[in-house]
Design brief:
It is a single chain. By secondary structure, this protein is mainly beta. The protein has two domains: 194 residues, Myoviridae tail sheath stabiliser (STM4215-like, 2-Layer Sandwich); 66 residues, no CATH class. It is built from five helices and 15 strands. The strands form four sheets. Strands 3, 4, 7, 8, 9, 10 and 11 form a seven-stranded mixed β-sheet that branches. Strands 5-6-12 form a three-stranded antiparallel β-sheet, with no helix packed on it. It has a three-stranded antiparallel β-sheet with strand order 13-14-15, with no helix packed on it. The longest helix is centred in the first third of the chain and has 12 residues. The protein is elongated and about 115 Å long.
Length: 273
């Protein structure tokens, strides 16, 4: 599209990030005497809650223990919307090294801000399990939680990604289901992840020499006739052999040996015709 094919896997990384935030939730079950009976890690998967609930209700073995199936969590990326409040100048660039050619610089335009809207569904058999899970999620969002991820590998770009929590809501499918349906108490929590999407990596030739042609008339000192004088002002980077910036061309190494990442100065001289 638009003459450029690229893929950074950014959206996939945001989905993985969200799943990672929620994949270490446990529920403790106790015996009647108060000792720990079992520690259950709540499984999480990507997909809509209706699919999960349908799978629970379709189990032909109605005597199967609920603890094997529930509690369960699922999440889904519901939508992606442009975030005008975080708009950046579209022509802004971020340059970085081209390891294969010192005379070429790679660059990327400013990323475009997008909000990724997720929905987390917590499905449990009883209200107590739901409370145990919610209390392991809600305290960390005030109302956002910021994580740092590597959004692009080459060049390596690390960004901070805030994730905002919305208003949780609950639904008991047993109230409206059939008499043979299993009870599934579902907590639905919306989240908004403040992400950015990067465009393709572009290349630009590095300009190391700027030439400005200047022409004017002057009087010949011998004949006093007006003659045309042409000069070229040449501007180049200046760097000594010791790595110090300089504005003196005679003290500088050849500009072809100066990288754009060096701490160079600006040197100029005049060529006359």
């Amino acid at each position: 599209m638009f003459g450029s094919t690229f893929y950074h896997g950014s959206i996939r990384r945001y989905i993985i990030l969200f799943g990672t935030l929620m994949n270490e939730i446990f529920i403790k079950r106790y015996k009647a005497d108060g000792t720990l009976d079992k520690l259950i890690k709540v499984p999480i998967t990507y997909g809509p809650k209706d699919k999960v609930i349908a799978r629970v209700n379709a189990d032909p073995n109605l005597n199967k223990p609920f603890s094997i199936v529930l509690p369960y969590m699922s999440f889904e990326l519901k939508s992606i919307t442009y975030d005008a409040d975080r708009h950046l100048q579209t022509t802004g660039r971020s340059p970085f090294l081209n390891p294969s050619n010192k005379n070429v610089a790679n660059y990327m335009y400013n990323p475009v801000p997008y909000n990724l809207n997720f929905e987390l569904n917590v499905m449990v058999k009883n209200a107590e399990d739901g409370s145990k899970i919610l209390e392991q999620i809600l305290p960390y969002f005030t109302p956002d939680w910021t994580a740092t991820i590597r959004i692009i590998d080459d060049p390596e770009i690390l960004i901070d990604v805030p994730t905002l929590i919305g208003q949780p809501s609950s639904q008991d499918t047993y109230d409206n289901g059939g008499i043979g349906d299993r009870r599934v108490l579902t907590w639905t929590i919306p989240f908004t992840m403040k992400g950015t999407i990067y465009g393709p990596v572009r290349k630009s030739k590095i300009i190391k020499e700027a030439r400005i042609n200047v022409g004017y008339k002057a009087k010949n000192q011998d004949t006093l006739d007006e003659v045309g004088v042409y000069e070229t002002i040449v501007m180049v980077p200046g760097l000594t052999a010791n790595g110090e910036p300089t504005s003196n061309v005679s003290e500088s190494v050849a500009y072809s040996e100066i990288d754009w990442t060096d701490d160079y100065g600006y040197a100029s001289y005049i060529e006359r015709e």
